[in-house]
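Quick one: co-fold with PLZ.
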Amino acid sequence: MTATSELQARKTAAVSRGVATRNIYAVRAENAELWDAEGRRYLDFAVGIAVNNTGHRHPKVMAAVAEQAQAFTHTCFHVAPYESYIRLAERLNEITPGDFPKKTMLVSSGAEAVENAIKMARAHTGRSGVIAFTGAFHGRTLLGMALTGKVMPYKKSFGAMPAEVVHAPFPNEFHGISEAEALRTLEGMFASTVDPERIAAMIVEPVQGEGGFNIAPAGFLRALREICDKYGIVLIADEVQAGMARTGTMFGFDHSGVVPDVVTMAKGLAGGFPLSAVTGRAEIVDAPHPGGVGGTYGGNPIAVAASHAVLDVIKEEDLCQRAAEIGEKIRARLSAIAERQGMECIGDVRGLGAMNAFELVKDRSSRAPDAELTAAIVAEAEARGLILLSCGTRYNVIRLLPPLTIPWDQLDEALDMIEASVEAAVQKTAAAA
Ligand code: PLZ
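Sure, here it is.
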């Protein structure tokens, strides 16, 4: 029995099967590298699902955490507040889009940030409806799950969803949903499905993460801004996956110039410590009465210390610029692979900054999803020492999420492994057919 198979057996016996896992049991990780229970070394292109944008154990983050641990680790901000939380709120009010008075609330997970953003929009507008988009992902809590626009595995078997959440189509040119058609359908929904004056908020990811790295066109975001202004709807940018320098700008929305009313952040915000934030127009974030929002762990001091260090590192190491450069390199290489003979399975290569993906199809004319090949490529990569994640409502997209601090030679090493993995998977599927 290997160390991994033993852990796997214990996991199966002791942990809820609903909590699905890969079989890479982590023992140690450093920047872009991770070692498992077998002592195998991997390049990590998942980074805890877009969390360690500053790499595993960035020295500055570790130092900030160690220093905070010497002072106190938890007091509950509601009971004994601390300056570092206030200072982080000030920093987030400053760096988020929009030149107007802003306020911030800190919580612990992406889903919790989303839930609170919706509560604030409801309190502010006195309305209850929410518009989300097909293919969206906003979390696994009851409301997060309702907002999510993907049934398997997130919504299936979990009963009735909270009422007044409606999904509008997210544009997807590759699959024949134009921006114009998506907008026409949304406007049509206001006539057929829901009164826009009952809608408190519209929530949208600038680049859909779990949904398949689908980039919201700038024109689409501009149109959503206009619709929200017309009907008095709060526009929430869910930057949980796209934010914190990942797309080559601090926030995904920055590419479009569109200013949302509220921004949700998590993942990359604190370099591996559980922290999330809701930042937005002061009057919206202030709408709940005192005591109406909060929680025991929100803005945990260790996570807040990590976040200050992350924000410093993003600036000092110019990680927005580096994300843009990493992205150019990745897209150039993926496009070159896609052009090779026998690589017709790569239907699309897309991305913004260092948030890139390629979509696997049965053939380029039908663009039918190839989920089996996608899984085979992920497995081939794992066997070669590269951790990749798939995504997409049809499980046929592979996303590349290297840390923004990855050394160039390791990026090349990973891209070589991707090419070899696609080749091997294509050959094996062809041989099996
Ligand atoms: N909003 C845009 O991407 C989390 C979830 C993976 P939590 N995405 C990864 C999984 O299988 O659960 C996410 C996101 C966007 C919200 C969330 C939710 O963030 O920290 O997982 O709650």
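If it helps, The longest strand covers residues 346-352.
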